[in-house]
């Protein structure tokens, strides 16, 4: 083709990137790679190796070691042995190592980019211009956090040995997102890369060697997820598991570690909405869709795979979109003029094709442009579905390919309802020229990241992670550092409950109740009303010496259901400002102070502790309410300093409806210390009070009723603590559970919560001294009562 013809047609000619340096690198290793354990290249115990193919042409790239349980054990032992010295090295020394890693990746950036494209199939433009710069940014950014840890996170310490499992869609980027903060905070790492795409992780290990990273600090075990991954998850000396991958595998992992006390963060699937309002810049929105769903062939967990278009512009928008689809170039990913490369492997290709055929069979209308698609490789054309019902499989299931599903809406509220009609909640993209509309919709969409008039924005300074079945935890930003640290105060927790000493009456008579002459029935408290239990049963309540002091309603599964419905029905509390909620909390404290003598005597009646210690507990409870009233309008977010021209708002949002299982010790203070921080942040709660000493909670009904707390904000169900906790863990409409009880109870809650992927905060058989402010209150409670949503707003002309 002559130059004149090119100018006339504007056809892109090929611009191939040379793979020669990467091929030379592979040949220098005889195309075979071992495990990286304790700073040395180690042959696998199994003596087996797996093949890595180039998905663009199906050619063999290399072989890498297939680790088994023995290899994983070696790697974990090496990491455990290296941990004390690495943690004690100090932030400055760790910062120097991370900085050196960042510099070395920059020096070899093109080799990393080419190797990633050969291994994964994504276009070289993406690996060169997006993936590698983000990788470098993460190591630079977290080098800074390593240096600042001793001042900015002085109350936190390293978690320990971290087991990390990463996916194949962003092999090196996911490594950086996990490894950089883990090492910065003083942890050591055992990494299990994806089966299909391990090559850049192995090159990264060589970088670690080159910069002199201490042996055992970073280890790689390649191989099958079902063998090496499972062994890593279940190893007794792994203190935290960080996993990015499918929701189904995330659920399996969570069940496997249930009750072990291991920390866990999960970044899972998504079905992210891409919302286009009628006043949007349509051409910009079209380019946004290209980036949202056809970036990396749609193999992106946060891909904007659900297009929601306002009905008034739908026809025009679809026409523009189809025209743009026809201009997308699909082909050799090593060609810099290519828009879409190859699907990662044959299995994923078949999964995409199967779901597309299912969409057709369900009556959805398909459009595929007549793009030239190479035959020798796993290439799939950009695909659009319209006339899709909300119940269609392709509207609900993650396809993880270049397939866009489109629906229309009329009103703004309908757009939000459609956006939230998913079991996922990873990301969302909103397109409108009305900033007021954008900032009205963004907080209403259940998603961890919301991009306004942009999409797929990532930075090391801004957390990324989801809600619902998209997992929990954040990667990046200050919020991401908490995933790789733990409060130092946890070292002071007791292995036994801390209970106030019971004092036997000198007369030999049981303590006199202030209501002894009244036959009083303590009911459940649901929706602002005292209600009888569904089952019609009551439980005897005994004091510390086994003496009968009264009865309490025995709640069951239906009572939990009713309480959850009441909590969801109450909308006003979450909509109140922090200032307004603070006033209500101060009012609660005031009303409790008025009745402090009565509450102290009730504590004495239940626990037989001295009146003096009971009065101290009541006073401490009042002060704790004041603490969270003070925080209600002061626990706020940040504007993150990202490298993009963005105002990136990190906003703490209420988790939603929370289930709280109170500790048995300190019946009033334990109730206050768990319930009040949750509602201070705008959550509605379903509370199971102390099973042994429930009357402090049932007496609290009247405090709530006289303190302007909306009915349904706090719902109290008494009964057998662990039985009711299981029901809350199973309930799909409870967004998070706090459990303070036995180790066995923690295991049950964590295991059952995996189905709905709800957040849990568990004590794993360790007990706080609730009278100690360092253990019983603070920002840790507020962090667990909130989710961080990052809203990205571009600025400038």
TrEMBL record:
<feature type="active site">
    <location>
        <position position="267"/>
    </location>
</feature>
<dbReference type="InterPro" id="IPR016161">
    <property type="entry name" value="Ald_DH/histidinol_DH"/>
</dbReference>
<dbReference type="Pfam" id="PF00171">
    <property type="entry name" value="Aldedh"/>
</dbReference>
<dbReference type="InterPro" id="IPR016163">
    <property type="entry name" value="Ald_DH_C"/>
</dbReference>
<dbReference type="InterPro" id="IPR029510">
    <property type="entry name" value="Ald_DH_CS_GLU"/>
</dbReference>
<comment type="similarity">
    <text>Belongs to the aldehyde dehydrogenase family.</text>
</comment>
<dbReference type="GO" id="GO:0016620">
    <property type="term" value="F:oxidoreductase activity, acting on the aldehyde or oxo group of donors, NAD or NADP as acceptor"/>
</dbReference>
<protein>
    <submittedName>
        <fullName>Aldehyde dehydrogenase (NAD+)</fullName>
    </submittedName>
</protein>
<feature type="coiled-coil region">
    <location>
        <begin position="597"/>
        <end position="624"/>
    </location>
</feature>
<keyword id="KW-0560">Oxidoreductase</keyword>
<dbReference type="InterPro" id="IPR011408">
    <property type="entry name" value="Aldehyde_DH"/>
</dbReference>
<dbReference type="InterPro" id="IPR016162">
    <property type="entry name" value="Ald_DH_N"/>
</dbReference>
<keyword id="KW-0175">Coiled coil</keyword>
<dbReference type="InterPro" id="IPR015590">
    <property type="entry name" value="Aldehyde_DH_dom"/>
</dbReference>
<feature type="domain" description="Aldehyde dehydrogenase">
    <location>
        <begin position="544"/>
        <end position="765"/>
    </location>
</feature>
<feature type="domain" description="Aldehyde dehydrogenase">
    <location>
        <begin position="41"/>
        <end position="488"/>
    </location>
</feature>
